[in-house]
Amino acid sequence: xxxxxxxxxxxxxxLCERLKGSTRIGFDTEFVSEDTFRxxxxxxxxxxEGSPAGPILAVIDPQPIGDLTPFWQLxxxxxxxxxxxxxxxxxxxxxxxxxxPPANLFDTQLSAAFCSPEYPAAYSSVVQRIxxxxxxxxxxxxxxxxxxxxxxxxxxxxxxxxxxxxxxxKILNKIDRLGRREWLETETEGFVKEVLEARTRQxxxxxxxxxxxxxxxxxxxxxxxLWRQAEAERRDLPPKRILRDDLIVELAKKKTDKEDKIRAxxxxxxxxxxxxxxxxxxxxHRGLEAPTDDLVGSRRKPPPPQLNLLGQFLAPAISSLCNRxxxxxxxxxxxxxxxxxxxxxxxxxxxxxxPPALADGWRAELIGNLIDDLLTGKKSIRIGDPHSDRPLEFxxxxxxRVRD
Length: 404
Prior knowledge:
404 residues, alpha/beta, Nucleotidyltransferase, domain 5, DNA polymerase, domain 1, 3 domains, 6-stranded mixed β-sheet, two-stranded antiparallel sheet, 19 helices, 49% helix, RNaseH_sf
């Protein structure tokens, strides 16, 4: 199918009108993220079917158009299925534009994990595994901000939507065969919710080197992180270009809001940073004055020494279970998830702790209930066929033996 290129507001409006009524709309984006606060959207690829206008294959160039609100509104409205691969940034673009995510999302990366062993898997890997085709991936180092784009670049970009409908059909058939449609819907809803919550989440605890700092220093880290985020957004720069993590930690250790002391920290007089020292001093002052009750973690019983041993023992068994169930173990659980469930069941959490991931929903159905049965002696693990790629078996133990 030949494609069309959308270069004007009028052409975008016409495209959106023709997209109305589509049963499925697939899309992908090309963006550059290293030089701006938010990723810079450079291209949108669209494929659609089921509308009165017939099949559509198009690329939308944001540079000459500017306002893409009609397209994002179209994606968020209507009964169509929206298909994308690893759609975190695509969701973010839509929410940033109109404060709503695309409607009825089917993420091919996420959905493929419910019927195959790899997660997270690249688009090309999913296409090859599910459809036995090899997408053209010859322009991976393209700077999508430069114009004009070549035919080869456009063809490369369109590869990321050519197979979306075929993937949707085949993956959904597999998921329905395995009886996991409800699992996928639950996980997709949780994925979209997590992306939305992450937009406003304060990730100051992720500042490299801040682990182990005393609570007053952590309060300073938090205030400096908040200032950095606001300044980065105002100047449209990546946050670490405003103030590096190591400088945040060093300032938090010094615990002084005196400007001469701040200037004395190596690295604080480079470029625009020295002009921001009064604002940095004010942020440190807020950290010095801020309450710290919310920075003190809840006390919990120390975990037993056997917890790591149990986790190490169960992790490969659970991985074998997932392989047998045709589901990606990396999606189903992590080694930390397994340890958290064991710790929770053994009473080493706190009253404020939420139930762990493996104690609820489809993860409990697939994994958590099995771990519970293993911990209570209702099931055992044995080696079945040592030559098999799935050598472990889970056997039910006779109830009389459990009581004994």
